[in-house]
């Protein structure tokens, strides 16, 4: 497990350095800074509400994919790294940061890029495909990878864990989070689109549907 921790840190550190370089902090507007700080503070408050449930399931909010949609890759990764370092034990920091920060953020960016490349330039494609369906897909993968890592740490067969009731409960929680965040993204796109960085007005609204 220690080797896995070091491997995760080796993967994560270059990504963090690249995120700092690409975050654009030096030329960020006051509104963008306010949105970044506000969303980070909101996610931090929600992460403090983590609770342990029966059957070894932890009721906790992820928020990484949501932050990727709203803040973009670099700022989301920096914020989630900071929040997880504050709220999670440092003993498993490498795995936690990789599974709960880098993986869902990267997957969310991948989903958005995939939809822009192969699907029509329609705002409903973004709202349904990226927000609701995309968020659930990302969180489902994140939960399954997290369970697989947990299985390795406790020396349990991975397949037996992935096809257990525990996985179903995690996916149920993921669906609830994706639905809630999808509704929030929809409201933001309609009334406050500048808060959703990955929603490109020129791409989704300037072309015929």
TrEMBL record:
Transmembrane in keyword set: yes
Keywords, ordered alphabetically: Membrane, Transmembrane, Transmembrane helix
Membrane-spanning ranges: 33-53, 65-87, 93-112, 124-150, 178-199
Protein's name according to its UniProt entry: Uncharacterized protein
Native organism: Granulosicoccus antarcticus IMCC3135
Highest classification ranks of the organism: Bacteria, Pseudomonadati, Pseudomonadota, Gammaproteobacteria, Chromatiales
């Amino acid at each position: 497990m220690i080797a896995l921790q070091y491997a995760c840190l080796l993967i994560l550190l270059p990504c963090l350095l690249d995120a700092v370089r690409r975050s654009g902090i030096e030329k960020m507007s006051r509104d963008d800074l306010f949105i970044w700080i506000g969303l980070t503070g909101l996610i931090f408050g929600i992460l403090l509400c983590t609770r342990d449930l029966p059957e070894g399931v932890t009721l906790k909010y992820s928020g990484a994919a949501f932050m990727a949609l709203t803040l973009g890759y670099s700022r989301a990764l920096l914020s989630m790294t900071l929040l997880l370092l504050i709220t999670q034990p440092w003993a498993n920091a490498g795995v936690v940061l990789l599974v709960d920060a880098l993986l869902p953020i990267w997957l969310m960016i991948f989903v958005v890029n995939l939809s822009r490349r192969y699907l029509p330039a329609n705002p409903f494609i973004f709202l349904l495909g990226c927000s609701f369906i995309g968020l659930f897909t990302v969180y489902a993968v994140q939960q399954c990878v997290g369970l697989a890592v947990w299985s390795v740490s406790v020396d349990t067969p991975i397949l037996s864990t992935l096809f257990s009731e525990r996985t179903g409960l995690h996916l149920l929680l993921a669906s609830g989070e994706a639905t809630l965040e999808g509704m929030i993204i929809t409201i933001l796109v309609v009334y406050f689109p500048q808060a959703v960085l990955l929603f490109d007005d020129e791409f989704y609204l300037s072309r015929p549907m």
